[in-house]
Amino acid sequence: MESRNGERIRLRAERDKLRATDPQGLADAWAMIEQLWSGTVARARKLPEPVLHEQVDGEWSFVQTNRHLVLATDCWLRRMVKGVARPYHPWGLGGSWLTSPLRWGIDPDADPPLDQVVDVRRERMTEVREVIAGATAEELARNCVPPDGPGHPRKEHTVVQCLQVILKEEWQHHRYAVRDLEVLEKRYR
């Protein structure tokens, strides 16, 4: 019982960080995200590469989850905050809502190895860290207008709203990845 309560407290503290609205709070939240993923990627690398492409209960594989997070960063940071008209890496992966990936420059048949996906993720995570490090209160309040062309989102958001979406995506998909790694680890021990 005590460990369940401790887990709830930890999760609540992590979720609270995701709601940050100031530069230091966002920096702390992003540091937490980077730390979580660093340990989880190291853990995943202990499994054979083909296992990391396996889906658990119809959910994305570990590699697919990381590809989705590339797309999330491309949408919310590169497209919205930075205003890049064609921000998408071809390995990005969207859900069923992404009906025309080729229009975005995304290869729906891509199946890159984990190490290559992690390299792209590292680049995207560095971009997020740099944007947060350079953020001021005024910048966080700036309204981002999506560039013309295919992509998501289609409506205006503030910089802080965009960063909060990235934080929530990273945190939630990390939880899914850990849950599924536990299944895979039991399966292949």
Question: What proportion strand?
Answer: under 5%
Low-confidence regions: none
H/I helix tally: 7
Q: Can you tell me the overall shape? A: globular
CATH class: Mainly Alpha
What count of domains describes the coordinates?
A: 1
Oligomer: single chain
The strand order across the widest sheet is 1-2
- Biggest beta sheet attributes: 2 strands, antiparallel
- Average pLDDT reading: 95
Rounded to an integer in angstroms, the radius of gyration calculated over CA atoms is 17 Å
The count of strands amounts to: 2
How much helicity do the residues have? 55-70%
Query: What CATH architecture do you see?
Result: Up-down Bundle
CATH superfamily: dinb family like domain
End-to-end gap:
28 Å
CATH fold-level topology: Four Helix Bundle (Hemerythrin (Met), subunit A)
